[in-house]
Structure formats: structure tokens, C-alpha cells
Amino acid sequence: MLLLLFKLYLLCSRLHTLTEATSQPAARMTFTLRETAMKRFPLLGHHAPAGVVLEKEPNTVISAEQKHLKSFNFQNPRKTPVEIHVPWTECNKSDPQQTLKADCSFNIYLVQKMEANKLFLCGTDEERTACCDMDLSQKPPRCMSSANIQNVKDSIQGFIIKEGEPAALVESAESNLYVTYSGSEGDVGIHRFGGNRVGPTMHDREQHYVGLVPSRRRDDPLQGKVFGFYKEKNKDPGLYSDMWIPFVTRVCMRDRGGPKNLLQFSWTSQMNARLFCGEPESRRHFSELVDVATVEKEQWEDTRVYALFRNEWGMSAVCVYTIKDIERIFTKSTFKGKVLQPGRSRECVPDSTTIPMDVLNKIKENSEMEDWVRPVDNSGPILFNHHNYTHIYVDDSQNNRSDKHTVLYLSLHKGDIHKVVQKETQTFVIAEYQPFHHRHHHVLTFLLHPPTMKLYLTSRTELVQLDVGNCAQYGDRCGDCVLSRDPYCGWNGSHCTPHTQDMLQDVSQADHNICVSSGMVEQSQTGSKYPPGRDEVTKSIKLPLNSKYFLQCPVSSHQARYTWIHLERNTSRSLEDSPGLLLIPRMSPEQEGRHRCVSEERGYTRVLADYTLQLESRAGVKTSTSLLLGLCVTAALIQSLSC
Question: Which of 98, 216, 628, 629 sits CB 3.0–4.6 Å from 93 for a disulfide?
Fold first, then answer.
């Protein structure tokens, strides 16, 4: 029976190894609920949260649920979340002539943080839309009558916001709200609500938007623009045609639409360009745009957009674009078909209602550019593998240091999170987090609070706070800390702790020899060929003659090689499919003595497990040992991710 279970374990391990082999690059380490700091709250109902925003106080966030807001305090997870009622102004109107019903009930589909402790949110009752700007410092909060938001509230009433659509509130003396509308019917495109409502022209193309990026120009406010990123259904029915085509579009913030008889209330400044992400040499490209994340810079042209793609082969990729490169295409490229449009301004104009009629007809006829937008420096993807990523979030808060690195968070379709460090065109998957109680729950939103290194994630059933700055999880040795290549962490001489300038870390090369050259190597590492782990005690185990037994080794890094050493000789059977498990097939005098599991990664070695086996002939041991064997195999099977 034991051998049968063992063979089953090997089969599961081989399947897992095969999966990992086709999913490279694999995360160096994996952290489950038991292995890293996570706090959580349940989310009731089946409505996806419209989003989460950070409150002023640390460790407190607000989730926009279906009918109300909830405030969660992660400093006290046992405390019941505070429910915040949204006092929609429209719901308090008793005049029957009002356009909105007095007994209205809105589902929240949009929430954004404003300045200080204020929120802007909008909801729909499937007939109308209402918006509210709330001051959370007031008790109880109420919808305010802000003059710069009132035009948004008035102009959006007849529009229906769809769940999950990107939106951007651009605050100014006269604020404007930009909301997308995806699909194949209706007013598909970017809509603006405020003092001048403007929307897309009618068309028959199926488009799905994944992000909006406002770009305000302090040097020239007239040239402020909003960039939209979307995928469009390909109308080419060819066998080798991609199903989706990725695009970026832009509109001017000052665009008021055309005159009364042509393009009235429609964009006159909209231009579209295809995005390219791939490697021309290998003919590998990615056509389905999945998500985008923005890293804003002081200079508008340096702002970067990290775009997540996938292709028909199940691979994902991330390409990086700058607003400067995108604008260059809209400024220099001819229009599709190599068409010139003399008289058509590529810049934003003060008054779009005065554009000549012949130019407006050209705008209505063709707004797609001939040239494609390519990644920064004409580079290829900074990351591509067989993982099915669904969302991307980017943190460059560590770039205030001399060794500039960017950290990417990528959610997988099964609900896990990959933490990836990026410098220029090089990436490294630091860790995989498994944050949810129920596997295969999709990540809907996530948000990082850089000062505390807390990542907030939502599924349909949970809100999780994940400590991505938990440096102690990498190990208790300088080499462990350096091999993590985590820019958040460094070695201070005794612990792996949040990184400062005076700590040891080598994110680019993971050169653990800096621990020795700096003198920060631990004393316990200097006197042994194989430095021990946290548990330095040799475990003694007595076994009956001819019995079978498993020795287990804690496998941490998936990029290390694990070897079992018996009596200082590498003669023990090492299981390639399960390096942390050693089978003693038949206990005999030859198997007695010391067995150590040694890991080696980039020349750094450690003893992770240390056992001394002895023969035991006392009666009654066989039964208890068999039970122990069964428990070991069961534990191993549970740990197998493939079965």
C-alpha cells in the first residue's frame, strides 16, 4: 500500500513538474496563507466591489459594495466593518416632477478618491445614474453640493455606467468625468461629463476598454489629453487573423465637439493607433489587450503605461509604452491608408466648434493612424510566459533610491499574485502569493499602500490585506535575503528587514558574496561547508529493520537544487521529481547514520534538514511507524499542487 501511495505521489509530482516547465519563469518562492502575513474580511453578496480606496488612517480601507460603502480596519480584523450609507441627493427629492424617482436605489459602479478625505462615486438603477461627492470626515457623511462637480452630476443622469468600466475624474475649477462604454452596440467609446458633454460617434466596431490615462500639461493646459486603451474585435475572418486588435486612442480635454450640423457633442480630436507588443525576430506577438497600469512622472512625456497582453497560445506578456512615444505617432504618422489630411490639426484647438466643415468630414471619415505604437526604445516585452495573467499593478516607489527598480504585481486567473521586479528589460518573479481561502477565486481589484507595503486585494467573497514587505519570510541568513532579490528588503547585519540605503541587497545579480565581502555574514555560516538553517538540531529517528520511511526537506526556493547527503557522501537516492522527499526503501545497517538535505542556489548552500537514523527492534514500533508513514505520504499528497 505504501509503495502504491508513493507511486501516486511521484505521478502527481511529475505532472506538477511538467506544468512548471511550461510555465516558466516560475516564481522563486511560494507563500500560502500559513507562510506569510495576511489579514482578511469576508465580503457578503455576489456583487463585485466597484473598487477599494485607502482612508486617511493607516490600515483602513473603504470598499464600494453594491448598495453602500464599508470601512474596514485591518488593525483590528475582529472589529465589525462600519457600514456607510450613501445619501443620494436624488433619493431625497419629494417633488414628483423630478427626473429621478424618490424611492431610488442605486448600484455603485464607480468610486474614486478625491483630495483629503473625500470620495466621488456614481451608481445606476438601470434607468438613470446619480453621482455623489462625499466628505468622510463628516458624521454621518453626506453628498455635498460642490459647484465644480455639479455639472458632472447633471450631465450624467441619462447615461448608464456599466460594471467594471474604466473612469477618470479630472478635478479643476470645472471638473470633468471620463467614463468608457464597451460593447458592440450603443455609444461605444469614451464619454465626458461636465460643463460640455462629449462622446464618441456611432460606429459598428466591437470595443472593450481596459484603462483611461489622463495627461495634464502644466506647461500648456490647452494640450491636456485623455488616453484610452482598448481591444477591438477583428473583422477579418481569415484563418490566421487575430481575434483581437489592441489600440490606444486619445481625445483633447478642451474638445467641445463640432458645430450643430456636424459632430455636435462628438469628439473632433479623437485619433486611434494600434499597439504592438511582441518579438518580430521570433514572430511572437500578443494581440489581446487585458489590462493597463500607469506610472506617472513629473514630466508628462515620461509617464509610462504598462500594458498586459495575452495571445491565442495562452501566453501573457507585458510591454511598456511612454506617453511621449504615443504622442509621436499621433503627431507624425499619416492616417491609415497613408492618407494625408491637410488642415487637420494634430494639436488640441481652443474651440473645436470652429473647425472648418471639410476638415470635420475628414475627421469623421478616418481617425486611425498608419503607424503603430511600439514599446519604449523599440524593445520587446519585459515579461512573457505561459501564465494566464488577468490584472497588473505597478509600484515604482523604490525608484527614489540609486538602484532603481520597479515592482509589478500580476494576478493569475486562479487568484494568485506574482510579485515581479523589473529593471529596464530584465524581470525576475520574486514570489507567488496565494491570498484567498478558496483557490480559483479571481482577483477583481488590488491596490498598494507603499508606505506600509500593504497590498489590498478583493475577490467576490473576500477583502485581503497582504504584507508584501514581510522580509523575514525569505529566511534568517544574509544569503537568503540577497537571493530574494526583493527591492523592498535588505540585510542589516542580523535580519532581513525593509530596505534602506545602509542595508545589503543586490536585486540585479543576487550576488550573495557581498555578505562575506561586507563582513555581514553570520558567524554560524563561517565554520561549516553547509551553513545550517533556523533549526540546527539533528533529529534522531529509530526504525525497525527492513521498514520503509520518508525523510522530508522544506523546499523554499523553486530555483535551488536539493541534494541528500549520507555520511558526508552524496550516495543517497535523490528524487528528481520531488527534491524535498527521500525514500528509505528498506531500513538496514547501511542506512544508519546522518542524512542531510542540502540546497544550492547560485553557489549558496545551506543544510535544510538533518536526521540521524538508527535501527530499532522493539515490538510495537512497526504499527506506529506504519501510521507515521501513512501520515507522511498523505501530507506529501496534500502539498502536491498538481493533484
Answer: 98
